[in-house]
Structures are given as structure tokens and as C-alpha cells.
Design goal:
By secondary structure, the chain is mainly alpha-helical. It is built from 30 helices and eight strands. The strands form three sheets. It has a four-stranded antiparallel beta sheet with strand order 3-2-6-4, with no helix packed on it. It has a two-stranded parallel sheet with strand order 1-5. Strands 7-8 form a two-stranded antiparallel ribbon. The longest helix is centred in the middle third of the chain and has 29 residues.
């Protein structure tokens, strides 16, 4: 651990690096929001909102200085920053470098913004220091420049004057994903200051268990809530819901182990993504399956299995063929942000309409989540942010206990309306009893018998619902979902790599990871989980909060998931969560998903009118166009609940050709919010002119550079020496 963890900032080591086109110190390709560009076209006014705010740069008015800076010359000369005389004697006032003044003997202007400029003769540069808050940091140590570095620097005939801001020590209580920690701060601030364990480090047994529990409990909602929506919609019983939950735990554990070993090798959990939820509901409410009266659940599940296998096979081909490396050139933050945000915003019709069925339970659940995640997020217990990390499970436990007390106190027991009649189809209920029965079904905690009917031990196995059925129209819908899932994963890879690794992965590693996600989603089709297994976007936020960059706790937790999947009572317990509480949790999870989508915009110029209009238009059309499809010639007498009617669009959409299957594909795809957002943002971002910095292009490491760096080879290389056998397939590796 660095000295900065004990309260004293570590000493800075000034070192001239070999010429690396990706080296941040040379102003070339940088992680985070700094795209590659020509330093001579640098606009200091454009950087005032980012670099200046982080480094304390102030505009040169009335002789103000830029703060503590140090200078490294191209010949190895180091001019350290000198602290102001504490006795009150001020150093001589000189022209400020940031104002474009020329240093005596300099041929070109010097910018005090971290960029390099040409200079041949440099004399003494007295520098005025800005006020330092708190105790001043110790002087920075200077490491002698190696001969190889000197010879490499001598190749530049014009000479280089590099002015660097000193290290800035930030509040360690801030989230690692806040603007103060991303982008340029990877060059200014040591990574050790915000990570407890780095990517390849292995914690001890106790920290391993603690962080594994933290990691998976914080994203528990994303792991297990999808079956609680889709299985009842398919006509499944609570016991069927329990079986699907156990299958999902099994597939999630296997997929995570495969991904951390043979995929991106980043600590990312694989699970049922919300990207697949809307297409799944569209297939479920296809008239061919919605009108079934016999064995509807298994028939629909087999159709979903076949569709997921087809879509996942396309995703695997997209990755392993190297096509994903080409798509990375046109998939940028301005495309990813509205696409991922539309996934969360697209479920607005399900959120509060279901919560409102029992507001005395649903609203307290939402308030608890907000209170824990926001107001108590800085409260730590034994160094862990208990309330922020465990917001979902703690709020779930408290609300469930509260609802149980209401049920046991007979708050939902009405005279003349027995709750035992809920499953009796022949019983005649009065209008008043029907209304009370609806309240009881929504508010009571003893509605589901999943816990009592589940076996203690049950091993989920492939094709447990029967052999999959394949129909091309369902497969095309899932192919569209797999493309959106790949776009979602690209943003997760980039964000998580900046949190836990020195650099973003090369395009080949991204392609390899997308291909493996396709293979793991095929496993989801074999086991019949109803949704593909891809990277959970919410996992990136968990890494930022827990500050756990090691992949070992994620792998350990994946093994625990596999063991839990065979304990039927655990799956039955999860399946018995009341529907209103599930909806309240989903409101929070979809909010997190939307926020994680918008967070990708931090890599671009968020104030650009170009980007604002593209993102705004993408989001508006992603809500408006699907509404047009969903409301077009709709039947107001539909028997579906109002929150499921948006997915029953295949039969009444505007596309009415002679082919019923083509109508289903076209009406369904253009009624999906995420697809419309992706298409609009993709076309606009790649056709509207904009600079690289304005667009905020994702910067991926170059494969040739990555192969020459032992650290990157260890971070992203395949285990067991497998990388040596795949040296010829650069498009899916280092």
C-alpha cells in the first residue's frame, strides 16, 4: 500500500519515459476522456472545464499563477516547484506561462496545461505558487534519467519542455467513478489511492469472503429479479419460478468464471441482463404463445431457449470473427450512453404502476433504497460503506419484515372475503370481495408457496424444460438484443478497465470477450433461464464503491453461486418475494442502469451542442417511436395488465404485410426502446461532424504496445500459457 493511504502523500518520482505513442506523459493517447490528438491543435479554453478544475489552474488575470507546477526538460533537466516563502516574502512576479508568454530564449509559446511545447534555450523560471490548503506535501524526489531515455529524447531536435501539475490528493471518501477520479487523474493520482486490491492481487481468506459477499449482494437485484417477472407472465407456478432462479444462479456462476479466465479477465459479473427482458416479454406475449391453454410455460420457455441460442451464436460470431474490432471504431460514448439509458427508461410502464398496487409497502421500499444509497452512502462500518453497498438487500429485508408484520396482524384480512379462495376458479366473488382480493394478492407475504414446495436440493440441468424450438422470427429479435448487449458490454469494459487496470484492453481482447459472452449466453439457452448471460452494467458501480479491483473475489463468489444453485430452498425463498417489493427493487435497479448509461458521457464534451442534441433526440425518439407502435390500432379490451400491453404489439403494429412472421419481427424490433435509441445515436454520431475530443472516442490500447508490456500481458493474457498458441489470431487477443 502506498503512503497515501496513511494520510501522507507519496513522493513523486519524475521519470522520463521511452517514447510510447500511448504514454500519457507525452500527450498522445490517454485513458479516460482524453482522445488522441495533435497537441499543436490543443485549445486551452476547451480544457478549462476538465483539466483546469482538477489541477487548480486559474486564468491569467492580474498576474495570478497556475499553482504548483514542476518542469521536465527534454534533456533530462528537472526544475522542481518551490514553495512560497512562509515568512511572507513573495517571489519575483513573472509573466505567466498559461497566458502565452514566451520564456527568454524560447522560440515557441509555453502553455502551462500539461502539454509539451518546443524550446531550445531555457533560463531560470521563477514560479509563483498558489495557496496550498492544509499542510504542504513533501518535495518530490527526482530519479536520474537513464541513458536510453536521454538518447531517445535527443531524437527530438526541437527539444521538449513538459510542464506537469503536481499530484493532487483527493478525498478518499469520494466514489472512484466521480469526475475527480477519472481520465486525467490516472496520470496525476496514483491508482493505489482508490484501490484496496489491484486486478491480479489475491486478498487473504477473510477479505476474499467479505468482498465476494459485498460484490454479489450489491447486484443481487440484477441476478435474480428477471425470473420473478417472466415466469408468472408465462403462466408458470411459484415452483417453476424457483427452478428458473436456481438455473440462473448456476449459469451466472459458470459464465463469470469463464469470463474472468478466458474473456476480458476483468472483475465483471455475468448474469441475466435487463437488455434481454423486453425482447423476452415480446416473445412471451406473441399471440402464438399467449393464447395457449395447455402447458404454456414449458412451450414458451422452449421458444425462448431457441431464440437465445440463435442470438447468442450471432454474438459469438461477431466477437470471434473480429468484426467487433471494426465496430469499436464507430461505437463511442455518445452512442453507448443513450442506448444503455434507454434500457432502464424503457420499463417506466412497469415500475410505479405495480408499486401503486400496494403503496403502503412499495413506497417505503423505494424511500429506504434512496435513503441508504444517497443519504447514508458515506457512513462506514469497519471501513466498509455498509448502506451504499448493501442498499438492496438491507432495504429488502426491512420492507419484507414490515410487510410480514402487516400480514400477521391481519391488516389484509377482510370479513366475508376469504383469502383461501384466491386459487378457486369456481368461487363466486362479490365486486367488493374482488377488489379486496386484488389488494390481498398485492400486499400479503403469504401469496407464494414457492418456499414450501421447493425441494431442499435440486441440480439444474440443461434442457430441463425440453428440447429448444427454433423459429426465425424469435431468433431475429434476440439477435437485435445481442447487438445491444454487446454495445452495453463495450462501455462496461472501458469503464471497469480504467478502475482496475493501467490501461483499457486492446480491441482484440474486447472482441474475445464479446465472443465469449455469446458462448455463455448459449449456456443460458441450454439451461433455460429466459435471458442471455452478459456483463452486468451495475457491476461497474459496485467496483467503484467497494474499491475492490481484484478478480479473485468475483471468482470466489461465482463458485458460491454455483453451490447455492443446488439448494432449492434458497431459490424458493427468492421466488417468494412479494411482487410489489420486486417492482420497488426494479425501480432502483433500472435507475442505476440508466445512470450508468449516462455516465459514459463523461468521456465526451457534455456541453457540446452536437452531443446534447444527439443524446436528447435519441432518448426522445426511443420513447416516442415505440409508443407509436404500441398504440397503433391497439385493442383497448386487451386482457393483459396495462404494464404488459406495450409488449403485445406484434398483432396490431403499423407493419401489416402478407407475412405474419415478418410483421412480428418488424413491429417488435421498432417497439424496443433500446433499439431505436441505438439506431438514432449510431447514425447521428457517425455522420454529424465533430472532433475526436468532442465525440469522446473510446481509446483502446494498441495490440502491439500491449504485447510489449509485461503488466498488460499479465492483465489481459490468457491463463495457462494459452496466449502462445493464439499468436496468429490477433483480432481476438493481445
Amino acid at each position: 500500500m502506498s503512503a497515501g493511504m496513511n494520510g501522507s502523500p507519496p513522493s513523486r518520482v519524475s521519470q522520463t519515459r521511452d517514447h510510447d505513442p500511448e504514454s500519457p506523459s507525452l500527450g498522445k493517447q490517454r485513458p479516460g476522456p482524453w482522445p488522441a490528438g495533435n497537441c499543436h491543435s490543443y485549445n486551452p479554453r476547451a480544457a478549462m472545464g476538465s483539466w483546469a478544475r482538477r489541477t487548480g489552474f486559474k486564468g491569467m488575470e492580474l498576474g495570478n499563477s497556475n499553482g504548483d507546477i514542476e518542469i521536465n526538460l527534454s534533456d533530462g533537466t528537472h526544475i522542481p516547484a518551490k514553495p512560497s516563502d512562509l515568512s511572507g516574502e513573495q517571489p519575483p512576479v513573472v509573466r505567466d506561462l498559461g497566458a502565452g508568454a514566451k520564456v527568454k530564449g524560447a522560440k515557441n509559446e509555453v502553455l502551462a496545461n500539461g502539454m509539451k511545447v518546443s524550446n531550445e534555450k531555457v533560463e531560470t523560471l521563477p514560479l509563483k505558487l498558489a495557496a496550498v490548503r492544509g499542510p504542504p506535501p513533501p518535495f518530490n524526489a527526482v530519479r536520474p534519467v537513464s541513458k536510453s531515455a536521454e538518447s531517445d529524447m535527443s531524437k527530438n531536435n526541437s527539444g521538449q519542455l513538459r510542464i506537469e501539475p503536481l499530484r493532487i490528493y483527493k478525498d478518499l471518501q469520494d466514489d472512484a467513478m466521480s469526475p475527480s477520479h477519472d481520465g486525467e487523474d490516472h496520470m496525476i493520482m496514483s491508482k493505489d489511492l482508490h484501490l484496496k486490491y489491484e486486478l491480479r492481487e489475491t486478498p487473504g481468506l477473510v477479505p476474499l469472503i467479505i468482498y465476494a459477499i459485498q460484490h454479489y449482494l450489491s447486484i443481487a437485484g440484477s441476478l435474480v429479479l428477471i425470473p420473478l417477472i417472466i415466469v408468472p407472465a408465462m403462466g408458470g407456478t411459484p415452483e417453476d419460478t424457483s427452478k428458473v432462479v436456481s438455473s440462473m444462479l448456476m449459469v451466472s456462476g459458470l459464465s463469470t468464471l469463464l469470463h474472468t479466465s478466458f474473456g476480458s479477465r476483468l472483475p465483471l459479473v455475468q448474469g441475466a441482463s435487463f437488455v434481454y427482458l423486453a425482447p423476452t416479454l415480446a416473445i412471451i406475449f406473441n399471440p402464438d404463445f399467449a393464447n395457449l391453454t395447455k402447458d404454456r410455460f414449458k412451450t414458451t420457455m422452449r421458444e425462448l431457449q431457441g431464440a437465445i441460442i440463435v442470438g447468442s451464436a450471432f454474438q459469438a460470431l461477431l466477437g470471434y470473427s473480429g468484426a467487433m474490432s471494426l465496430l469499436l471504431r464507430v461505437i463511442n460514448p455518445v452512442v453507448v450512453a443513450p442506448t444503455v439509458a434507454a434500457v432502464g427508461l424503457g420499463f417506466f410502464a412497469y415500475g410505479f404502476p405495480v408499486v401503486g398496487r400496494c403503496v403502503e409497502i412499495g413506497i417505503p421500499q423505494i424511500l429506504l433504497l434512496v435513503f441508504f444509497a444517497l443519504y447514508l452512502r458515506r457512513i462506514t462500518v469497519l471501513g466498509h460503506r455498509i448502506f451504499q453497498v448493501y442498499a438492496v438487500p438491507v432495504a429488502l429485508a426491512l420492507t419484507w419484515a414490515y410487510a410480514f408484520l402487516l400480514t400477521e396482524s391481519k391488516a389484509y384480512t377482510y370479513t366475508g372475503c376469504s383469502f383461501n379462495q384466491r386459487g378457486n376458479r369456481t368461487a363466486t366473488l362479490t365486486p367488493e370481495c374482488q377488489q379486496q382480493m386484488s389488494t390481498m394478492l398485492s400486499c400479503r407475504t403469504d401469496v407464494s408457496n414457492a418456499l414450501s414446495t421447493s425441494a431442499w436440493f435440486r441440480f439444474p440441468y440443461p434442457f430441463q424444460w425440453g428440447f429448444p424450438t427454433f423459429n426465425w422470427q424469435s431468433g431475429v429479435v434476440m439477435i437485435a438484443a445481442s447487438v445491444i448487449a454487446s454495445v452495453d458490454s463495450v462501455g462496461s469494459y472501458h469503464a471497469s478497465s480504467l478502475l482496475v487496470a493501467s490501461r483499457a484492453p486492446p480491441p482484440g481482447v474486447v472482441s474475445r470477450s464479446i465472443g465469449l459472452e455469446g458462448l455463455t449466453s448459449i449456456l443460458a439457452g441450454f439451461w433455460g433461464t429466459g435471458a442471455g448471460a452478459t456483463t452486468l452494467t451495475e457491476n461497474v458501480h459496485t467496483i467503484a464503491v467497494t474499491k475492490m479491483g481484484s478478480r479473485r473475489p468475483v471468482e470466489f463468489g461465482a463458485c458460491i453461486l454455483i453451490l447455492l444453485s443446488v439448494v432449492g430452498k434458497i431459490s424458493g425463498f427468492i421466488a417468494s418475494i412479494p411482487q410489489v417489493i420486486v417492482a420497488s427493487l426494479l425501480v432502483y435497479m433500472w435507475t442505476m442502469l440508466t445512470a450508468m448509461g449516462f455516465s459514459n458521457l463523461r468521456y465526451s464534451e457534455t456541453g457540446s451542442s452536437r452531443n446534447v442534441l444527439i443524446v436528447g433526440l435519441s432518448l426522445f425518439l426511443s420513447l416516442s417511436i415505440p409508443s407509436y407502435f404500441q398504440q397503433y390500432d391497439s385493442d383497448s379490451s386487451s386482457r393483459l395488465p396495462i404494464y404488459f400491453q406495450p409488449y403485445d404489439v406484434a398483432a396490431h403494429g403499423p407493419f401489416q404485410t402478407s407475412s405474419k412472421h415478418a410483421n412480428f419481427v418488424l413491429n417488435t424490433i421498432f417497439s424496443l426502446h433500446m433499439v431505436v435509441a441505438f439506431l438514432v445515436a449510431f447514425v447521428l454520431d457517425n455522420t454529424v461532424p465533430g472532433s475526436r475530443q468532442e465525440r469522446g472516442l473510446y481509446i483502446w490500447s494498441k495490440g502491439r504496445t500491449a504485447r510489449k508490456e509485461p503488466a498488460m500481458v499479465k492483465d489481459y493474457g490468457l491463463p495457462f500459457g494459452l496466449s502462445e498458441f493464439f499468436n496468429w489470431v490477433r483480432w481476438v487477443g493481445l
